[in-house]
Input
Amino acid sequence: MKKSYQSLEDNPTNNMIQVIYRHLASKIPYLGLVILLTFSTSLSAQEGDPVKGKTIFNTNCASCHNLDRKMTGPALRNVESRLEDEQGLGRDWLDKWIRNSAGLIKSGDAYANQVYNEYNGTAMTAFPQLEDQDISDILAYTAEPAKEKVVVDEVTSGGGGSSEGGISSKLILGALAILFALLAIALILVRKTLNRFAEEKGIEAAQKDKSLPIWKAFVQNQFLVLVTVIFFLLASAYFVYGYLSQIGVDQGYEPVQPIHYSHRIHAGDNGIDCKYCHSSARVSKHSGIPSLNICMNCHKSIYQVADETQQEGMDEYGVDYNAEIQKLYKAVGWDEAEQTYTGVTEPVKWIRIHNLPDFAYFNHSQHVEVAGVQCQTCHGPVEEMEVMYQHAPLTMGWCINCHRETNVNVEGNAYYTKIHDELSKKYGVDKLTAAQMGGLECGKCHY
Amino acid sequence: MKSVFKIVVVLMVFASVVSCQKNSRPNYQFMPNMYEPVSYEAYQESDAFPGGVEAQLPAEGSIPRGGHMPFEIANTNDGYQLAKSSLMSPLDSTQIDRLRAGQLYDIYCGICHGKKGDGKGTLVKREKILGVPSYDDAGRAITQGSIYHTIYYGKNAMGSYANQLNEEERWQVVNYVLELKADLEK
Output
């Protein structure tokens, strides 16, 4: 309840209602509802239901209109009263406009032509199917007071809280370090004083008897020395081999990308198909990184993440998602206020992660389209990755293993019928593996 | 004392070696001469081109091989109306591949328009993108020409899909959308 109270206070046009509210605040808990009702009746001529209006608005109008932002079309908050005040246009004009704006423009209506030209002749869709009641509902929805302030407050305070958390944990660590240092010094001091006591009292510290020290005994036993030397050689050979064979293998490589782009949010939570963005995986060697116009297919409309998403990003990953979207806008040269491209662009320098050496050839369409292998088989649980990393080693052994184990997908592939029949007769098997098809021949991958 | 000191030194060396292995840097390469390409790779940086980007658009007016003719209709309201009334699919009934068209539709359009074309895809259900119309919307009365024009250039809040689908695939999808529309109108 506090929140809605605040939002009303922020809005200077609501003084009247605010007074009523003050009077009743302590008594009636359902006040918000009452206010809502008074509002919609006082501002729109016909009774409209803002809740229904929201649904209709979201399905029909929201692709071009936002209540508080210019999009393809103008911001629509309080249109009815705005048009009434500024242009002297009534509800019947709105009815005509919404049902058939093109008709109204053709009929020579002055204001209709003015906005049409203002928006560079973008045509608004006609909605002949909307009933009078539907339009009243929409207008009631647009007449609702804005309540964004509260949201913004919450986000910023959340951000402040998390950075405070960072500072305090650093403080704790520092304090701990100092504590340990003090402890160590204290121990040394205690030891020194004890020693001094012992000297003064003339007590000799207990001496070990001077029999052969263990290492001398060890050196004299030549067999033992030989065994240990061999052991050490083998062990170090093992480690050296391990070290050498991981040279050039980038498993786990996880660079910081210029835009914090999260596969978890896109491919996981929102279920966007990999090939929507990595489109060329269907047809070419490369999967490709999507060009920015593909991002803008969605981000023209998604200029901000939902509040829960933003909160999660701040708390769990320390990333301001909305700022990342602004980076995208900057790179692609999108002017949010004007809803146009400025033409000033800069390439995003994504850092390439998976990269085979130049002497090995790998083709995505062969594996994705022809063999029907899922992306996740090779790239791991991408839909859970907040930051992309290399899941597989991408060594030759890895390729070969899979070719030995995976059957060729011959179903519905006329190209394979003949060779498949001949080869399966030759090997005496029902199902051919990629290796039996020739997937182990050096020349398939190295040329 | 001495042995403690030694152990500490060994531990510190070990720790510094381990902490040096950062995942944000690529690993060392042994004699990278044959690892690094001599020719240009896709998306490489290069001084030879404006902006340092190796990936460049083809020259204005160039036509790719394989019979893809340029699309003559303009990206304007008039162009849209022209396409809506006159543009026809070049595919005949034998060339229509419903299975592939369905897969393409689910990848590129289903996320917003829904698998059934009712305007209720995942992003709409999660309220990320609003105002996606159903294909049977009476005020829009879409036709094959208008769908093709929309895929090619986009329309208002919807972007262009011309670079993700080639000409033949676009017509396959158009055909699939018309089928969905017919199903919705039933």
Summary: Helices of chain B lie at 2-20, 77-86, 98-108, 110-113, 122-125, 144-153, 167-185.
